[in-house]
Amino acid sequence: MTPMVIKRVYNNNVALATDENGREVVVIGRGVCFGRRAGDTVDVALVEKVFSLQGQDNMSRLERLLKSISPEYILIAEEIVAMLRRESSLPIDDGILLALADHISLSIEREKRGVTLANPMLFEIEHLYRKEFALARRASEIIHERLGIWVSEEEMGFITLHIVNATMSQRPDNLIFSVEMIKGILAIVSETYGARVDTESLSYERFLRHLQFFAQRVLDADSAQEDSTVPALLERADYPEAFGCADRIAEYVEGLHRTRVTDAEKSYLVYHLVNLVGISE
Q1: For position 227, what pLDDT does the model report?
Q2: Which of 226, 210, 214, 223 is nearest to 263 (CA)?
Q3: Rounded to whole angstroms, how far apart are CA atoms 246 and 274?
Q4: Where are the alpha helices (DSSP H) in 148-280?
Q5: Burial (CB count <10 Å: 0-12, 13-18, 19+), residue 110
Q6: Of 28, 39, 246, 276, which has the fewest CB atoms closer than 10 Å, so is most exposed?
């Protein structure tokens, strides 16, 4: 078997190397580069982790990150990503490893200084992304196990957004806007239906997930809204409250982002609203 060969030494514990197939990888291990230089072979007995991220951009980002943070944070982020893939069915993008490692390094420095970064959207994040927030809490336990430091709930909220972003592939700034948009939509639904909405039901969970993708389609120019012909399964005369609520949601979204909501999108909103409160209005 062709040995791994060092291409660049970052420090005693991290190197860029080529594997047996000639691919660039990052190897991490205590003392793996001690006394070694470019062109030397890697002592595989000292290697703890090998990273080979898809895409040259990801590899370049990983290289830049390794120059500024401890490799320990990369290893913790890798353990968190493994947990996410093991304990959920979410489609996790490779890029979350880098985002998490960077965030963890910054948040730990804040925690060491006793500084808590305010998260004004924490309540909405915890409410809208319950499963992802639970996973972020598990991530905080991993951080505590490895570093002996508990991160704040505000930081868990930010980790939640990283998880959501890794599953929906949208711009981080759009994700914040989508949380605000969904908050406004739920306020309209609450005004319309009040206590009839069971926030613990499966229908509510499905509605939230629909709103997440709806907000993404509205905010992201590359994600076109639904605009197909939707079968007229529900008539306005039969469900005036749901249709009226969908109309108000569309007006709110159009006023907020100056983006027209298609009839198809409104039809899907009606479908979910009817399921949310029962068949009869």
Answers
A1: 55
A2: 226
A3: 11
A4: 153-168, 172-193, 202-219, 240-257, 263-277
A5: middle
A6: 39
Distance of CA 142 to the CA centre of its chain: 18
Under 8 Å between Cβ of 181 and 208: no
pLDDT of residue 29: 85
Rounded CA gap, 173 and 194, in Å? 31
In this prediction, residue 231 carries a pLDDT of 46
Is the separation of the CB atoms in 164 and 91 below 8 Å? Answer: no
Question: 156 forms bridges with which residues in the sheet?
Answer: none
Cβ atoms 262, 227 nearer than 8 A: yes
Chain Cα centroid distance, residue 63: 22
Q: What is the pLDDT of residue 66?
A: 76
- Which residue, among 21, 20, 11, 133, has the nearest Cα to 74 in the 3D structure? 11
Backbone angles phi, psi at 133, to 5 degrees: -70, -35
SS3 of 176, please? helix
Do 216 and 174 touch, CB atoms closer than 8 A?
yes
Instruction: Please state the φ and ψ torsions of residue 192, each to the nearest 5 degrees.
Output: -80, -45
* Distance separating alpha carbons of residues 254 and 252, to the nearest angstrom: 6
pLDDT at 150: 92
Comparing C-alpha atoms, which of 14, 13, 19 is closest to residue 5? 19
Partners of residue 212 on adjacent β-strands: none
Low-confidence ranges of the chain (pLDDT < 70): 1, 53-58, 169-172, 221-234, 279-281
In whole angstroms, give the CA distance from residue 163 to residue 160: 5
Which tokens sit at 93? 């993008």
